Amino acid sequence: MLIVLLTYAVVAVVCLVGHRRSDSWAFPVSVLPHAVGFVWLVSVAPGVLDGTPLVASFEWVPALGLSVDLRVDGFGLLMGLLVTGIGALVSIFSVGYFPATTDRARVAGLLGCFAAAMLGLVWADGLLTLFVFWELTSVASFLLIGTDDRSATARAAALRALLVTGAGGLSLLAGLILLGLAGGTTTLSGLVTADPTGGVVPVALVLVLVGTATKSAQFPFQFWLPGAMAAPTPVSAYLHSATMVKAGIVVVARLAPTFADVGAWRPIVVVCGVGSVLLGGFRSLRQQDAKLALAHGTVSQLGLITILVGLGTPATTYAGVAVLLAHALFKASWFLAVGAVDHATGTRDLRRVRGVRRSAVLATGIVLAAASMAAVPPTLGFVTKEGALEGLLEGGTGWPGALALVGVVLGSVLTVAYTVRLTVGLLGDAPHDPATDHAGGHDHRPGVLLVVPPAVLAVLGLVGGLAAGPVGAWLARVAASLDPASSDGALYLWHGFTPALGLSALALAGGTALWWATRSATATTDAPRSLSTVGYDRAYEALLVGSRRVTGVTQSGSLPLYLGIVLLTVAAASGTAMVVSRDWFDWATVPLANSPLELVACAATALGAVAVVLARQRFGAALALGGSGYLLALVFLLQGAPDLAVTQFLVETVTIAVFLLVLARLPQRFSGAPDWAPLGVRIAVSLVVGLTVAGFALQASTARTEPSVAEEYVARSEPEAGGRNVVNVIIVDFRGFDTLGEITVLAIAGGGVVNLVAAARREQRRKQLLDGADVEDLSGRAPEVWR
Amino acid sequence: MSGPSVLAAALQDVLIEPAPGFEVPSIDWAGIAPNLILMLGSILLLTVVSVLKRRVPSWFAPVWTISAAVAAGCAVVPLWQRFADTGPETLVGGAVGLDGFSLFATVVVCIAVVFVALLLADYLPRESLESPEWYVLVLLSASGAVTMASADDLIVLFVGLEILSVAAYVMTAMHRRRVTSQEAGLKYFVLGAFSSAFLLYGIALTYGATGSTNLAEIQAFLAGDVVTQNALLLGGLAFMLVGLGFKVGAVPFHSWAPDVYQGAPTPISGYMAGAVKLGAFAALLRVFVVAFGPAYRQEWQPLVAVLAVLSLVVGAFAAISQTNVKRMLAYSSINHAGFILLGVLAASAAGTESALFYLLAYTFMAAGSFAVVTVVGRTGEHRQSLEDYRGLASVRPGLALVFTVLLLSQAGVPLTVGFLAKLYVVTAAVESGFDWVAVVAMLTAVVSAFMYLRIVATMYFADAPEGAPALRIPAATGVALGLSVVGVLLLGIVPGPVSDWANEAVAQLVVAAP
Hints:
The complex is a heterodimer of chains A (787) and B (514).
Chain A: H1 2-17, H2 26-49, E1 54-61, E2 66-72, H3 74-97, H4 104-123, H5 127-145, H6 152-183, H7 188-194, H8 200-215, H9 224-227, H10 233-242, H11 247-259, H12 265-284, H13 290-311, H14 314-345, H15 360-373, H16 380-394, H17 398-427, H18 434-440, H19 448-466, H20 468-479, H21 499-518, H22 521-524, H23 531-554, H24 559-581, H25 596-614, H26 618-638, H27 642-663, H28 679-701, H29 709-721, H30 726-734, H31 736-771
Helix pairs in contact in A: 1-2, 1-4, 2-3, 2-4, 3-4, 3-10, 3-14, 3-19, 4-5, 5-6, 6-8, 7-11, 8-11, 8-12, 10-14, 11-13, 12-13, 12-17, 13-14, 13-17, 14-15, 14-16, 14-19, 14-20, 15-17, 15-19, 16-19, 16-21, 17-21, 24-28, 25-26, 26-27, 29-30, 30-31
Chain B: H1 3-15, H2 33-52, H3 60-86, E1 89-91, E2 96-98, H4 100-126, H5 133-149, H6 154-172, H7 179-210, H8 215-224, H9 230-248, H10 256-263, H11 266-291, H12 293-320, H13 325-346, H14 349-377, H15 392-395, H16 397-411, H17 417-431, H18 435-461, H19 475-493, H20 496-504
Antiparallel strand pairs in B: 1-2
């Protein structure tokens, strides 16, 4: 298993690195890993189908408990055969398809990377392994879509594809992690056995379904798939019809037997599926580009498969697996055929294509693939569609099952209609149009490499239908790995006149009639933009606008606002802490005042602070602030701390001096209050914050459990340091190191300031001498910061 | 014995006549060698260039800085050996911890220094801002970050924070010709000063409640005693959380971050996302998880959970509407901070390891991303809007590819380090029972993936505007870009050795020997 993946890796690296001189070898070489993988799968098939899955696991990040768990069971085998088999045919086709002007080695290398990632995805057992490979396929798809398209709409579509599948992948991851937690396991197989229950499981399942719906282009996320058609046709054939878009279905199929009954799983699956079936079929009828018509058809068919595997009953699971096989064969064949037509005639427009019938092989391939797609007997498409209808008619799933049946029948009618339309459009000869005929110039018969791969796939579809018995039995062993009860499923080419046969006939007749009735109406019109695309664009816009509004409010660039938010949060957090702890300080322990004078001084200090706020001029505010500070010095003095009072006094004086210096350069008055904060708001914020801080100050003052360090200083000052002035002793003795450091810092800083000032003066003088002009004064700018 | 230690020993002998009861802490110089190298490197650089002035060639300062960072990184190796042999220690009188955590953080800081020096080497000549002060400040702030990460004492932690922050304020404002740079510096300084004050207030309250600023003693006190001053302790926790929350840029203390990241010279923005965040998160982890974790986690976890959820949501949603790529990255850094807070929230060994691993990963991603912004911004940094990234893939395919890898990593795409980092923190949070926060984190990852992919799509799916000046990738910047991409991919594919290392990098508190 690992050898297969390694082969892919080696070939991909060779392609991506070694393409300097020529790259014509790239696609032939890229067939090799597909062949190796296919042969290996065939060789292990008997054992796997007997119910002994191959398991491989290796540690990736042991510290994280992260390992890569792979497990090839029956379903993994089927998907692996599709990935490698169709991959080989696509590679062969690409040899003839890509002109030498494209970077063939790059495309081949990326396709190899993609195939490896896809194999990893279908074999993944570990939940994280699944996610890792899932995202890698998204990335590879993105790189392949972005290969060479230059039109603006195609680019927008590619962006949509990337965003939708990228976001969906993360949704899947969230869902898988939750499921894994609920089930206490890290593997899909473990999850299925654990069958976790609990409140989180339905939520997780919805997340998973969102992820799978995005990847498998299910309603309402189907709109990215037509956009992805900007990719080269072989890429579309491989990724966007046969393999990658089946990734969501793989996950649904593995989970459905266990979880289909839980929560909203079935309604979601059926509503999304039916929506996709009808919308895809309907829109396919209205496309003029054959490839786009196929893409919409793929949406429709994927809806059918999702419904079948998602319902989770043994019969529908079996039918889902069968339809999946049939679809992969005929849809890849279709895409390759359209690619061959495009290559040969230079157009994919149903109104312009001519001369396809000249290549008998290609025409036969198209007819066979069409028969299988429209479920005409005796193709594989027919027998599997029969199986699907049988499974749905069996019922047992309530209204979702009934809705699914109606949706599938209507969808089949649409499928027949668009298939007929496509076939007629491609094989019929459009009227001569001088302009395009001249411009075309391509008109040549497609090479053998271009016609054989689609024909092979189409013939397989026919053979599979004719050999319905053995194929059905084989598929039953495949489906048994999903749900053991599916092992008695079977396919019949003919099993009498049953309701299913009636519905099939109805679909064929109705579809043909629908095509006939609408053939002129759909011949000219181009499709309008889909509602989902509109919805997506609206959502995109709304998200941007909403986010812009939120940002505008919270991120105004206003410093006071930022500060206000921080302050309020602080008050809220610490206030809550105080309230929660119920650890109130005791008012009785807080002395009010030692003397009436103290009360007066305190009141005056507070008044000064109020005056600061009320002042309209900067100068007045600065003075009031200074006054308040001086009064605080008085309070210190009254409390018996003359040294502190002196310090406060000096600091206040210096501050006022600095203020006056700065104010000379600023406007006299304060700028107006910012709009967001009327007076009331500002007062409220200040009060809340002030009260909180004051509360903690009181709390702290009552919290002392140890004796004050001051007492120790006083006691030790004379005997140990021989000084009577405690403050002096502290500064030069007890904390002498601090003082030394502080003096040093001050000295250096002072020296620096002196130097700077001197240098600035010199510079100023030099400039004045040079220019004879005043030095530019930049200080007048009042930045918006303060608003 | 090396020069400084001889001098210090002599000073101790001569100046201090030990008073009875006065213990002079013995200083294990070897144990704090990485920090010393950064600090001395800074001071020596300043001395050399001020003495020699113009005679110093322009390559000297960046080469010096990188050498200092590499030397500091190398100095970790013997210390790690010592830690592996003898277990965690506490040095300098119980003030500095020598454990796996501090050593791992030191290495991450050194990596950030190397990146910023490489970027500055090209950025400064381009903007005509060449002067060695940038490098001096970078080394100083790195020393501050290391100090914070290895602090075993709240006061040491505060000193580290101030060394780190003041240097960062100055560097933010140091682009002389861009008003936004000065505005950013002013905002950062004013708000930062407040937050430092809160932190200090919180330290004071905690001291009041527990009777010590030493983390080991606080831990022991909380484990052993019935706390009588609950309000003080809770208030202290809240205030410290505000102070450190501001530094990590957690919502609602994030308001500075977009303005500052956008206004600061771009290499400095990248450095702030790496080293400054690391310092603050290291402090958070040491204080909250280690010191307060065992006894008090129930009290602070709800607060951190709120911060984490707000950061995740606001960071993701605000980022998508931005049209300026640098600002987008700023908001995304808020989202990343939310993810790292998940690791803090877990309050477990796994949580600490995951947060450290995330910080290492983010250092690489941020350095590379901001390097791209530096290059695309061109002289004067006028080209930062999303429009300026149109068609980058066709003009400079290599640069676009590098940026794509870095953005995918930030979005958390597998095979890049971003995926593992996110997985790591989310797992840690879930193991500690914070499922719902983890779910929120995953959902915001979807939203921010949208934003990263938008940049990628702009580069690949839009036509390059006509007449844009040519884009040059200077040599040193190219090296930085290459290093970051290699780091992102290498750590994303074979993280084994590094994650093993991170697993041992758990902070441990050791009571100082009496």
